[in-house]
Amino acid sequence: MNKIIERLQGITYTAQTNPATLTGDDIAFVTQSVKSNNEKVIAQAYTAIGHIGNNRPEKVMHLIDGAFAALKDSNWEIREQAVLALGRIGRADINAVKNRLDKIIQLHCDSVPKVRAAMLDACQSIANAKASVFKPYIGLFERMLDDPDKEGVREHAPDIFRIIGKYEPEMVERSLVLLKEKLRDPSSTTQARAVEAIRTIETFLRRTPTV
Q: Where are the strands (E) in 88-168, listed by range?
């Protein structure tokens, strides 16, 4: 295994399990790694950045601009890990991303399904911090319920409604009709996640759940 990737994985593990022990050298190593010529190293660096940012966002604020720029990288794994990183950082500090949400949302039309799914995951993370910032994008999320990727993206799509429904149920009240259509989706995973989203929205609207 590439020794740089191995160390980045170690830093990621520390960030997840004991973030208080991250050192200045760890942050410097990650900072240097995103400048690598190796795309696998860069992608792994963004994985580390996301997990550091999830617990200690102040340690990676200097890397935010680079993460947003990486959303347009030609390598899909870099785009995927950069948007996931921004989601985790945004959950910890909404101010780090709230003025540039459009750049995250633009990945809804990425040609790679895993990147589109990662965009949804990032939005879920940010919605846990402040769901109301996604009010302009509800229609887009509704269209993603019918994404061409019948597994990865469609299976992720109901979850953003569940998260928003916990905090701002009125924002997604109109989406209930479309979510109920997903109860007939060929994917049992999509069906199950649609049920969870519907129940959450209806519960926080103080209604008796219909599913």
A: none
